[in-house]
């Protein structure tokens, strides 16, 4: 799996949005690499007070590759977000072009399940050959949950924090936890890190920092 931050609204706008209610000046300059110290404190205090609605003005757009359909089902349950997903209606018959069908599947680590999933795609491939009129919309009912897809997704930071809070947790399903930890990794060292630093601290305390390292070692 890979997740790429495509674009995002510059978080430097956030202090001005928070301060509009009482017209206090921001100390973050346009060319600064980080928030000014007063603005950093303001962001942390506001977050601590639970006044998180200003975070909705900051948006992130991600491109995610090689996610299983099973993980996709979990992701789209985060409804305060936007998704544009690769359609099996148009791409499913690519199984005819692939020799190693395992490359279209998420490996589970269970050989019996992985072999069964490959066999399912082999049967589907043969079905396409035997029936040239087979429609993708019919064939997709045979797809294993491990079948890989890709998508764009858009979160505002308030919703993104909720996603990370639930999915980067040690109790989350391993694949979506991998995605959440990978996204955190991509934001480290950026201005966006200040907006999720409390979640990063909790994630690191659970040992997910090591998980992120192993994930990136395999996929990026």
**Total individual domains:** 2
Shape: elongated
Low-pLDDT residue intervals, each spanning 5 or more residues = 213-220
Fill in the CATH topology of the largest domain.
Gyrase A, domain 2
Spatial ordering of strands, largest sheet: 1-2-4-3
Roughly what is the average pLDDT, rounded to an integer? 91
Put simply, the count of helices is 10
Oligomer: single chain
Q: Fraction of residues in helices?
A: 40-55%
Q: Using the CA coordinates, give the radius of gyration.
A: 21 Å
* Count of strand segments: 4
Please identify, by name, the CATH architecture of the largest domain.
Answer: 2-Layer Sandwich
The first-level CATH class of the largest domain is given as Alpha Beta
Distance between the termini: 8 Å
Portion in strands? 5-15%
Q: Outline the biggest β-sheet.
A: 4 strands, antiparallel
